[in-house]
Design goal:
The protein is α/β, with parallel strands linked by helices and about 180 residues long. It has a domain of about 130 residues. It is built from 8 helices and 6 strands; from the N terminus they run βαααβαββαβαβαα. It has a 6-stranded mixed β-sheet, with helices on both faces. β5, α6 and β6 form a beta-alpha-beta unit. The longest helix is centred in the C-terminal third of the chain and has 27 residues. It is elongated and about 80 Å long. The N terminus is likely disordered.
Length: about 180
């Protein structure tokens, strides 16, 4: 039950301890703490889908099924794997997955959690470690980049698109005359 099957070795992998991030990120934490785990999970998944595309990384988010009440299974949402671990805690699954990915020749594996014990174990297995805070900062930075790209696109695409720039000067004058008469 490994995500490494069919992995393009050129693509770095970001393994995310889902509930750890949900418990940290303010906009998810309110749902997480109030028992609305499905809302917290879906909002995190949505953020990770965008992040995965922008940063060109394979994202695998892992949730303890013990908390979600789901059997062990894997789903895929827009290119990111969502794993529910029913028989093992997410921590144990992630540790095994880091080793499997490294053995399969994955160039870089990042592991996201703020659990110090898990950070140490994942690092020992060969993963780079990010805290939940670091991931949230990266996601927010990627949002800003997208906004900047959209602003630049809008301003450059407006140039030359205004109707008056594409009309003959005589037509523009005729339209002005018509406007003045109305």
């Amino acid at each position: 039950f490994s995500t490494s099957q069919g992995l393009e070795t050129a693509s770095p992998v970001l393994l995310v301890d889902g509930y750890n991030v949900c418990g940290y990120w303010a906009k998810l934490k309110k749902h997480f703490m109030n028992g609305r785990l499905n809302i917290a999970r879906q909002r995190l998944i949505d953020e990770l889908i965008t992040f995965s595309m922008l940063r060109e990384v394979k994202v695998v988010v892992v949730f303890d099924a013990l908390m979600s009440g789901q059997p062990t299974h894997k789903e895929n949402f827009a290119g990111i794997d969502v794993v529910f671990t029913g028989d093992a805690c997410a921590d144990a699954w992630i540790e095994k997955e880091v080793v499997a990915l490294r053995d399969d020749g994955c160039p870089k594996v990042w592991f996201v959690t703020s659990d110090h014990h898990q950070q140490h174990a994942a690092n020992g297995a060969g993963a780079f470690v990010w805290s939940s805070k670091a991931l949230v900062s990266e996601i927010k930075a990627s949002h800003k980049e997208v906004e900047q790209m959209l602003r630049e696109h809008r301003s450059s695409s407006m140039q030359g698109k205004l109707l008056k720039h594409n009309l003959d000067s005589e037509v523009v004058e005729a339209l002005k005359d018509l406007r003045d008469k109305l």
